[in-house]
Amino acid sequence: MDRSTAGRPESEIESSIVSEQGKIDKSLELHYLPGTSKLSPREIGKSRVRLPCFKVVLPISVSTSFLFDIFLTSCNKYKFLVSEQSSSSITAIQTLTSTMRNLFTCLLPISEEKKARTSSIVRIDVTLNEKNCARVVTVRGMYGFPNRICQVIQTFKDLLEKAGTEFVKENKEDSDLAMPTFQTAYYQVSRFLSNNEAPAGKLYSDFTEEFWEKYTEIQISAQNTKSMVNFIKNSIDGINEILSKTVAQYSRLAIEKYIFTKIFAHIKKIYIEKKSEVITRFLEKRSENQTKTDEELMQQLDIKEKFCIKGIKNPYFSAIESLNNLDKHSCPIDKLNCILESTTHMKTTVIDYWHGREELETMDDQLPSVKQVLIISQHRLSS
């Protein structure tokens, strides 16, 4: 605790925290104990008081490392030191200020009560929202004094605004603004790429011309899919370098979708040629199993008894329906989302059937059920 507050009553200190915080940012999610409370800082940490919290949804193009850099900069400014770090979170703690008395005290055992008076903890968590192609960022106080924690959060928020990345509402993971924002970006990208006089449009025109020159012949192209993928990726990156300055959000995803919408039908033919033997074997296997019941398929695929779903017609209906939507999409990310959605429905079906007692956790458990979904997709639903 600072010397300026050392001799002041606890309630007065708490009131000053609220007053100081009010100058920083009233939009943050803050809750305080009443100024008349006699609780100690340790009891504040144990109580149900909600410490400052900031939540925002950002484009997937904003990397986790970039967000961590901003958070660490904010922490360093107020002498919060990293105590724990993982691939998706960082926890930082602010302890005693460096006075001679504190340097001497740190050599001695310190009680939890004293530690509570001097420590404030703040944490950042970054999670991926695959459905909306976004990163959900939460910076929140875990323990300690609200004003100290809020200084870090406010600095983090300000740095985000300076970087031009805060376009989505706070405290809403599945933001309704996510899709309109992408649609706006896609419209802007379409406008630029369809204009041959614009730099990005000229680059796109050159790409399409070179693509058809190189990969018109399906059989030859099927032998060079790796170079084709690299060519497409590098071209998208090049166009994105130009448009990312103008289209702030979802620039690369919009470019990718625009390009694949134009060329995917041809790319699909190339991969059908490349994987023709695999496709033939798969269609044969599916044909062999078309007349079998769901329970017979489960037995043939060696699905473990505890994961078998009996007595239900079309048990994986939702998973199959999601998988059958694959052909409606051209963009790779949309196709991946269909597959992820199908897998989620498949796992949810098992959880619902067994009322939460069983779950498809490992890939060894999931694979037989995935095979069943693949075998009965596009055939059972159409009948």
Highlighted features:
single chain, alpha+beta, Glutathione S-transferase Yfyf (Class Pi), Chain A, domain 2, VPS9 domain-containing protein, 17 helices, TATA-Binding Protein, flat, VPS9_dom_sf, 3 domains, disordered C terminus, VPS9, five-stranded antiparallel β-sheet, 383 residues
Walk me through this protein's architecture.
The model is unreliable at 1-48, 102-108, 112-116, 165-180 and 379-383 (pLDDT under 50). With 383 residues, the protein is of the alpha+beta class. A hairpin with a 4-residue loop joins strand 4 (120-129) and strand 5. Helix 9 runs antiparallel to helix 11 (225-243) and helix 15 packs antiparallel against helix 16 (332-353). Helices cover 56% and strands 10% of the residues. It folds into three domains: 3-162, Kinase associated domain 1, KA1 (TATA-Binding Protein), CATH 3.30.310.80; 178-274; 277-376, VPS9 domain (Glutathione S-transferase Yfyf (Class Pi), Chain A, domain 2, Up-down Bundle), CATH 1.20.1050.80. The chain is built from 17 helices and five strands. The chain has a five-stranded antiparallel β-sheet. The chain is flat, with a radius of gyration of 28 Å.
CATH class of the largest domain: Alpha Beta
What strand order characterises the main sheet?
A: 1-5-4-3-2
Order of helices and strands: HHHEHEEHHEEHHHHHHHHHHH
CATH architecture of the largest domain: 2-Layer Sandwich
Q: Please give the count of helices.
A: 17
Content of β-strand:
5-15%
Stated plainly, the CATH topology of the largest domain is called TATA-Binding Protein
Q: What would you call the quaternary organization? A: single chain
| Helix amount | 55-70%
**Could you say which overall geometry the principal axes of the C-alpha atoms support?**
flat
SS-derived structural category: alpha+beta
Give the total of domains: 3
Biggest sheet character: 5 strands, antiparallel
How many strand segments?
5
Give the averaged pLDDT, no decimals: 75
Question: What radius of gyration results from the CA coordinates?
Answer: 28 Å
Low-confidence stretches: 1-48, 102-108, 112-116, 165-180, 379-383
Domain VPS9: 291-383
Organism: Stentor coeruleus
Protein name: VPS9 domain-containing protein
InterPro entries: VPS9, VPS9_dom_sf
